Amino acid sequence: MKYLAAFVAATATLCLQNAVAGPADYVYLPSVEYGEREIDFKFGSATKKGEDRLSAASVGFGYGATERWFTELYVKYNKLGDQNANFDAWEWENKFQLTETGQFPVDIGLITEIERPKDHSEGYEFKWGPLFQTEVGKVQLNANLLFERHYRSTTPSNSEIGYQLQAKYRWLPQFEYGLQAFGEMGKWNKWEHDNDQNHRAGPAVFGKFNLGGRQVIKYNAAYLLGSTSHSPDHTFRLQTEYEF
After folding, report:
1. CB 146 within 8 A of CB 162
2. How far is residue 37 from each of residues 93, 114, 234, 244, measured CA to CA in Å?
């Protein structure tokens, strides 16, 4: 219980405290499955009163290269208001499982991402951070701490900090439910004023369907509400994966 208490206290502290995340962002999990291949589709749409709707989507192909390393390449698109969808960036994501699943009270992983935007004046975006997961009965808890910075950009960039939180109740394999939260606080060593930070949270659903062999379709979706004036008022996000 002492490990769980420390875990909950750390995530609660993080919640109470700006590269702005995209509406299609998803919660990273620390586990890796060797030999797994996946086609991953993500979509998100965010609205704020008085501003155009921002939509984003990505398609990726991933592979479990080793028992501890999963790598994935994405092509990303975005759409503002009534404009046509446009190519936005290439992204290379690498996830590392640092502990054996269930070996310790908290499973630990590490995520790294390198993104090359279409607008080369933005340079290269590098994101990294530790991933944490624990189980309490049928409830799965996740907390991720993320750092992001642009390199070789036209304008100077600072390292910024954000988080992802998730609680999921394992009801049925095809349908699970819970909560998700995302946020960005600004510079890692000097957070923005509370109302200038970006925090979104809301209900989420999850599930998977086994198609035989190693073939699985997974989904998760969430409806998020902003809690500051700098946050989108409403965000819908969806991720579907075909694993084989």
Report:
1. yes
2. 14, 20, 33, 5
